[in-house]
Amino acid sequence: MREKKIKTTSPSLEWNYSPALESTSHLKLKKQYDLFINGEFVKPSSGKYFDTINPSNEEKLAEIAHANEEDVDKAVKAARKAFTEVWSVMPAKERAKYIFRIARIMQERSRELMVVETLDAGKTIRESRDVDVPLACNHFFYYAGWADKLEYAFPNRTVKSLGVVGQIIPWNFPLLMAAWKIAPALATGNTVVLKPAETTPLTAMLLAEIIKESGLPDGVVNIVTGYGDTGAAIVNHPDVNKIAFTGSTNVGKLIQKAIAGTDKKVTLELGGKSANIIFEDAAIDQAVEGIINGIFFNQGHVCCAGSRLFIQEPIADKVIKKLKERMQTLQVGNPLDKNTDVGAINSQEQLDTINRYIKIGKKEGAEMFQPACKIPEKGFYCPPTIFTNVAQSNIIAQEEIFGPVLTIQTFRTVDEVIQKANNSPYGLAAGIWSEKGAQIFNVSSKLKAGVIWANTYNKFDPTSPFGGYKESGFGREGGMHGLASYVKLSNK
Amino acid sequence: MRLEILKTYKLYIGGQFPRTESGRFYTPKNKKGAPLGNMCLASRKDVKNAVSSARKAFGGWSEKTAFNRSQILYRIAEMLEGRRDQFIAELVKQGSTLKQAGEEVNLSIDRIVYYAGWCDKYLQVFSSVNPVSSSHFNFSLQEPVGVVGVIAPQDTSLIGLVSAILPIIAGGNTCLVLASENIPLCSITFAEVLNSSDVPGGVVNILTGNEKELIETFASHMDINSVLYGGASKENIQLIQELAVVNVKRVHYYPMNWSNEDGQSVYLINDFQEIKTTWHPIENIGGSSSVY
Amino acid sequence: MKNSKLKFPDLLSIPKIDKVGVEERVATFQTRSIKNESKIQGLNMILNMIDLTTLEGKDTPGKVKQMCYKAMHLHDSFDDLPTVAAVCVYPSMVKIAKDEVKNSGVKVASVSTAFPSGQSPLDVKIYDTKFAISEGADEIDMVISRGKFLSGDYNFVFDEIAAIKDICGKVRLKVILETGELVTLDNVRKASEIAMYAGADFIKTSTGKIQPAATMQVTYTMLLAIKDFYQKTGKMIGMKPAGGISTSKLALHNLVMVKEVLGNDWLNNEYFRFGASSLANDVLMQVLKSKTGVYQSPDYFSID
């Protein structure tokens, strides 16, 4: 018998994950991206471009055209022409097939889309791969099917398209938000002028390429990149019939005001400060996962993030302990690494905002905890952060931070927590964790929020309507109810 | 000859009939210049009080069973039917012909019956179970938006008022209503109908007064969730929409003739509803391949 | 009972389990990408954590001897491979196995207590265990009485484990819950608590005779129970998923799960084992693939 080195027990070794970077070799990003107007990529009339950078290492990715009023006007005119001459007169079942085709090409190019999304937005590749891109494709699939079935969504009504819709989307889910906006608008027979956020325009431009490849008639979708001034040009354009906006409550209010007195319809999907409520009878370990997913998913850049945690007092210490331990296992760093859980903050500006709130939280006397984690030297990063000893009157418990920052409050009774959860100008979402069905139904019916996640959090689906109460905006996106934002109804 | 007893028209707030806290009144006149009566000229503070009452009543009203709300609405129709003559007299006094007045009252009663019937049905028609691609049960249903401020249509005294109020309360909201300024008589009489129909105090609050003076308070009050503007003035609607921004109010206006069939629709109930979507995991034990 | 320090767990205070949440969490372990260095290190750890098992009615001394040789010589064309942790056999084969692996460091584990059903009187189970120990077993893998558990007789289950533990003394006791028969994760959690409080050194998912066996959901649930128990009592309980883990990928995901739930302290064969018969060769093929760069064929790996 050969002698062998025998280890009865292997010593406890540190076992860590080697870097597992998603390959970028298949990408062919252009140096410069132009505006997508009337089915063509055209230079901005001002000749001006701005840089879009990779927030995980601050390297420039590409130059992006800056559209001004003239460009927006061109886009709206193209959309109007496409609406009157082509899209509104096309049989609905043909419309459906175009949308379906876009979905298929997106699916085929999903690997490219997910990598570009991660590069441009700083979100983890795991999320781009498993959440953003598949959901975006599925949104197109879902609404493709609605195009020729609209009369089933609105019983006893005649359904008409609105015309040209202007859509302004945020940087937290760049491609997914484009899908949320474009897919239902097309299904209902409208034409589109879309403006992606200035920090994350790349996947929208890839989507423009996909749309062109799909053969969608020229001008049905136009994509204009730029800053707030570009968005304002869309909002104020007299020939736009509807504005759909997702973004901050402040900008939403400006838009609501700007279109006052016009015939423009508007839907707003704005900010939030959503309560995530853990009752003492909750499945505690899954609740902890729900807390993690609620606030650290997409670095907390989620309008419906569960940023206010309420824990019932008997289990508060236990939950906080488990939460802190769980936070230690979060991998923070390069978003392109397949093992990264928390990626880069979207921009320097947003990082500054988050850090300002963290400072405020400390100043307010709340107790901060961040797990030990190595953060890359370049790029914008913020470790997962929680604050305990927080009161309802703390600023960090009232204002939307839009980052991986959680405030934790405790409560005693169901009555108290409903009041505290509703005690906010916002009303986007809420989480409830309890194993008692009757309690879940009671609390969910009393929370003023558009989405209730019971024993889960941050779940999205094309069939599921999303949108808020109160200052979180109005109108719904997704599902059958999402169609209502894009149609005009009249008596049969 | 018997001296007629004139009716004192007061406000209707929180199930009570108070005078305006401001002590002011105005005297609208009919087309021939004859005074219709002394009406309270409600103040901003009356609006504020009406909002408080509506807010207080919201919890109870929105949580009543749909069947119960429906019963109460049917009761309103019954009460109105019983007081047809009074409304016809008021409408005539305000300038309608007898025939017109009769038709308006009939239409109003029928409209209330229409909405009473919807109370326990609109949820069934417009809610959905959403087949999400994960192991969750997901459903969307409507919930009342909250407290609604109503600027009633100014060109009618009764049908506009009824058409604006009913879809709002059928959907579980509470409201405060500014009645037609120039032909306000039916509004306070309708308040008496409401008050005797098991409608809890505060669910509907009715004010009379000057639209121009109060419209800004309706639009800007932070505890009003939605505004229905029943008038036709472009200027007013712009003003409301601009001021509504403070708390992202949902503003609806309906430039239409409320006496038409368009004047009633379940979609008007929908306009004052939020959609709430709820998710819950479905535990799947046994697996889809199991035969049960 | 000798060991009067044992305390029956408070079953009311144990956490409820939401299965869908567990599935989601497990899916995140499965998306971990284990590459390069960490993969090679992980594969070696897996080999060293295997309880190489044969538990068949047709087991013979010849079969057991061959398996024992494999346990010590996984693939002798490479020098730096570890041995497996133990061989796992029926009581009647303990002596044969013990003679084969003596001085190698490979342990002999014996199933007992009327494995796999456990449907015998306590006396028989005690004798079964005593016999295995007297034949030289280093570890005992007992089964719980699932029938009693499912009829709510938790005290019976607890007392039985405690009685076997009494006999084991220093011999390490693994308690098989047979989770496929317990069906729900709430039951798995409850049975884990009972076993740990009754004195188990290890908790183990399955006998390998019932499907489903060691699903990641079940193992995750048991790891959480071990974690809570450790935080309450300071005692580290080992974990042994058994049955159904036959690929390197699945085994690596199990390691990921142990690391992220319990930490590196549990990542050795003192506290984590795989009960498996065909896993070893799959891991060996992966190890050789990473050493040689070419994909492997089962024909080149012994199947003892």
Q: Sketch the major β-sheet of chain A.
A: 7 strands, mixed
End-to-end Cα distance of chain A: 91 Å
Assign the structural class of chain A, choosing from mainly alpha, mainly beta, alpha/beta, alpha+beta, or little secondary structure: alpha/beta
Number of helices of chain A: 14
Q: What is the C-alpha radius of gyration of chain A, as a whole number of Å? A: 23 Å
Average pLDDT, all residues of chain C: 95
Task: Compute the number of helices of chain C.
Answer: 12
Rounded to an integer in angstroms, the radius of gyration calculated over CA atoms of chain C is: 19 Å
- Strand order across the biggest sheet of chain A? 14-15-16-13-12-18-19
Strand and helix order of chain C: HHEHEHEHEHHEHHEHEHEH
Poorly predicted residue ranges of chain A = 1-9
Q: What is the assigned CATH homologous superfamily of chain C?
A: Aldolase class I
Biggest beta-sheet profile of chain C: 8 strands, parallel
Features:
heterotrimer, A: 492 residues, alpha/beta, 2 domains, seven-stranded mixed β-sheet, 14 helices, 22 strands, 19% strand, globular, disordered N terminus, B: alpha/beta, five-stranded parallel β-sheet, three-stranded antiparallel β-sheet, 10 helices, 10 strands
How would you characterize this protein structure?
The complex is a heterotrimer of chains A (492), B (292) and C (304). Chain A is an alpha/beta fold and 492 residues long. Chain A has helices at 69-87, 92-108, 110-121, 125-146, 150-153, 174-187, 202-214, 228-236, 249-258, 284-296, 313-328, 348-363, 414-422, 437-446; strands spanning 32-33, 35-37, 40-42, 49-54, 59-65, 157-161, 164-168, 191-195, 221-223, 242-246, 265-269, 275-278, 308-312, 367-369, 385-388, 405-411, 426-427, 429-433, 451-454, 469-470, 473-474, 487-491. Chain A has 2 domains: 32-270 and 472-491, Aldehyde Dehydrogenase, Chain A, domain 1 (3-Layer(aba) Sandwich), CATH 3.40.605; 275-461, Aldehyde Dehydrogenase, Chain A, domain 2 (3-Layer(aba) Sandwich). Chain A starts with 31 loop residues before the first strand and ends with a strand. Residues 1-9 of chain A have low confidence and may be disordered. A 5-stranded parallel sheet of chain B has the order 7-6-5-8-9, with helices on both faces. In chain B, strands 3-4-10 form a 3-stranded antiparallel sheet. A two-stranded antiparallel ribbon of chain B has the order 1-2. With 304 residues, chain C is α/β, with parallel strands linked by helices. Chain C has one domain: Aldolase class I (TIM Barrel), CATH 3.20.20.70. In chain C, helix 5 (122-134) packs parallel to helix 7, helix 7 (154-168) packs across helix 9 (185-197) and helix 10 packs parallel to helix 11. Chain C starts with 18 loop residues before the first helix and ends in a 12-residue tail after the last helix. Chains in contact: A-B, A-C, B-C. The A-B interface holds A 138, 155, 157, 249, 252-253, 256-257, 259-261, 268, 270, 425, 440, 444-445, 449-456, 459, 461, 463-467, 469-474, 476, 479-481, 489, 491 and B 125, 128, 130-134, 136, 138, 140, 143, 145, 225, 234-235, 237-242, 244-248, 250, 261-262, 265, 267, 274-281.
